[in-house]
Amino acid sequence: MTQAHDTQHPGTALQIAQDVRAGRRSAVSVITGVIADMEARDTRFNSVTRIFGPAAVARAEGIDQRIARGEDPGVLAGVPFGVKDLFDIAGEVTTAGSLVLRGNPPATRDATVVARLQAQGAIAVASLNMDEFAYGFSTENAHTGTTRNPHDPACLAGGSSGGSAAAVAAGLMPFTLGSDTNGSIRLPAALCGVWGLKPTFGRLPRDGAYPFAASLDVVGPMADTVEDLRAVFAVMDGRAPDALPDVASLRIARLGGWFARNIDAGFVAAIDEVMRHLNSTTVIELPEAARARAASFLITAAEGGSLHLARLRQRAMQYDPATRSRLMAGAMLPSATLVQAQRFRSWFRTRIHELFSQHDVLVAPATVGPAPRIDQPTIMVEGREVSARANLGLFTQPISLAGVPVLSAPLAHPSGLPLGLQLIGAPGAEAALFAVAAELQRAGLARCTPLTMGSK
């Protein structure tokens, strides 16, 4: 695994901001160092698609000038971050990982959540790799290549926000932005061993983020510590963070049934340890999880296919072949099928909300096990090998249907590769998830260990 090195890690987001605000480091030195590090090391991981060098350095110079004048540059002063390549960055073309959009004019303004972060002193330094149009769980892109897992470059990083997770895991930057429709934050966060948050549906503005399936899409952060994740989410949310409840007061349950099958034995042991620490022996079942996964899949396919149908009729061959075939299939789904899926969705949402009348946090695996190899992109489900790209969302897709917040917490696995735990809350109850995550981090049961410069 990783090895110590004498080159300084850029630090957590809150550490960088404290140093820059106190004058111990300049924002320019932080940003130029991060850009140099990306240029030197990302060739191994392929997490970055574009570096916003001149614009980022200019923004850093402005922050240093504000500090010199005694002005407050914001709570994230000088903190570098990257964005999944579906967020608008003023002056850049938003491609959503596709050739199809490369001829579009540059964005005239930042996406809303990006603007909120930069208003508090954070600096967007790069766009990050993704599955084309966010349709995939592996960040294998015919146009921009495959993002490799920093913990083992022979393995997948997960997707579709794989570049975002890998950039944090590689220690290139302390936080990044991704999007999650059926698991696209939670899965790569789990496989790369970083913290990730899928917020409550509708809580964060999606203005300036290229859509996939509008009735499921959310945007959210990934970070190297719970504290960074919470601070970044608060800025994206545009309000002060909610107070954290006492973990001892929370009613915590483990999801069994669908979420207890097909799991790697080492993962089961890790979850057992977490539940012991949280002093919970409660196991409950989420009704009709398999149907929930199917409904989420169908709604995503239909909405994505509908969004792209006109362009597919004109420029189908410009799409990544794997994306093209699924979008076309989604566009051809019978309307009656979609109606049935939406009816089930309403029923399922009611059932999961009923669970939250008796429980505050539900615990479930994010994946069946560690990251699959790139040259053998399969996972075992029901005793047989199936495509990782299509099936990594086994445990994330059902939860997506209800629109509830989910925090992905990084766990260790005997193989040395990371795993991820889904902490699931009621709508608007992100604070409960942060409280449990902070306790698991404090106890050493969940933690991100980014690679440092010069590491493997």
From TrEMBL:
Gene (UniProt): atzE
**Gene Ontology terms for molecular function:** biuret amidohydrolase activity
The positions making up the signal sequence are: none
Positions of transmembrane segments? none
The catalytic activity of this protein is classed by the Enzyme Commission as: 3.5.1.84
- From the Swiss-Prot or TrEMBL record, give the protein name: Biuret hydrolase
Which Gene3D superfamilies does this one have? Amidase signature (AS) domain
> What's the source species' lineage?
Bacteria, Pseudomonadati, Pseudomonadota, Alphaproteobacteria, Acetobacterales
Top EC class for this record:
hydrolase
Asked if the Swiss-Prot or TrEMBL record annotates the protein with the keyword Hydrolase, the reply is: yes
At the top level, the lineage of the source is: Bacteria
Which keywords fit this entry according to its UniProt record? Answer: Hydrolase
Annotated Amidase domain residues: 34-433
